[in-house]
């Protein structure tokens, strides 16, 4: 089954509650294909030569899932606290063999 990553942006209209996250993770686990995730803290960019680009401040977390296809992965956004609170969730495919 293909792998996808859900990237949460920090553009919610209201702050998601801890209970919302608990419910969402329970739902993902029950549906199958949940492979983990985390909030994303501050950091820096690095580059061997030349100036590095800026840190993507709008990304605040990720969730990795397995889904049948992009449509199935997008359906798993329902209930995501960022999404439900008016924020943006990017759904991106992870190419095979790039674990």
Automatic annotation (TrEMBL):
Superkingdom field: Bacteria
Pfam families for this protein: YCII
Gene3D superfamilies: Dimeric alpha+beta barrel (3.30.70.1060)
Residues covered by the YCII-related domain: 36-92
Family label: Belongs to the YciI family.
Name assigned to this protein: YCII-related domain-containing protein
Organism of provenance: Sphingomonas alpina
Lineage of the organism: Bacteria, Pseudomonadati, Pseudomonadota, Alphaproteobacteria, Sphingomonadales
